[in-house]
Give the backbone structure.
Amino acid sequence: MSELDDLYQEVILDHYKRPRNFGVIDAPDRRAEGDNPLCGDRFILTLKMRGDVIEEVRFKGAGCAISTASASIMTESVKGRPRAEAEALFDKFHTMVTSGGAAEDLGKLAAFAGVGEFPIRVKCATLAWHTLKAALEGTQDTVSTE
Ligand code: FES
C-alpha cells in the first residue's frame, strides 16, 4: 500500500472515530434525511443559512466508516461556502468517485478517490452529499441511495 493510501486511510479513520460537526442544529433553516436502504444507514442533516451561504451544518446518525467519515469531511468542506460552491464541490467529488475524475483541489475529500473501485462503497461516500443536495433544494425530506 502506498504512503498516500495510508494517509487517506488515516484521514477516514480519524473522521469516523471523531466526526466533526456532529449533532443537530436547533431550529435549522434546512433539513433532510439520507438513507441507504441496503444497509440501513441513515443520517439527518441540518443547515443554518445566511442568505445563500451555509453558515452552519451538522449531521447525526449511524453509518459505516466511509459514510460517517464522508459526512464529517463534507460538513467541513461546505461550511461557510455559498450554495453554488457547495454544489460544484459535490459535482467534482461525485465525478471523482464514480469515474475517477481528478482529485486535485479536493483537499481531504481526495481520501475517497479509491472508493470508485468498489461500486457499493460509492453509495457510502455520497450518502451525505445527496442529503446535502436535498436539504439545499428543500424539495425532499428523505433522500435514498436506491
Ligand atoms: Fe451503509 Fe456504508 S454500509 S452507508
Summary: The pocket of FE2/S2 (inorganic) cluster is lined by residues 36, 39, 41, 63-64, 66-67, 124, 127 (CB under 6 Å).
